[in-house]
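Dear colleague,

Thank you for sharing your sequence with our group. We've completed the structure prediction you requested, and as agreed, I am returning the results in plain text so they can be pasted directly into your records. Please verify that the sequence below matches your submission; if there's any discrepancy, let me know and we will rerun it promptly.
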Amino acid sequence: MQNLSIGIIGAGNMGLALASGLASRMAPEQIAVSDPHPDKRQRIRDLGISAYADNGPVVARADLLVLAIKPQGLRELCAAIAHEVQSRRPLVVSVAAGIRGTDIDRWLGGGLAIVRAMPNTPALINAGISALWANDKVSA
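Please find the predicted structure tokens below.
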């Protein structure tokens, strides 16, 4: 993960937990997070991580893009970032429950490496496990 740039869209409980865990294992400069709420962005900045109100800067630099928003907002988010995601072609990881990987791929314009992750509540204290699913575009 030396040169990997990770972007996280959403700084709620799960996005914050992921950012916090990553910041303890890699340089915070390699991580960027976006969230529309100023208080959530400040919690991210307190970790030494760049935080943005807009998703553009996060998507533009991400080799791995984590979608950590509520499921009901995922389709609209994907439509808004699809062009940039298609240009950058990061590995996309979604933690949104109940949304199929095929739908995420279609909403983002298709042909992307998609992973669905279902972290459990202990992930909030870096003690959880995650069930994973990956499409055929994801390499070993």
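Summary note from our side: The chain has one domain: 6-134.

Kind regards,
the structure core
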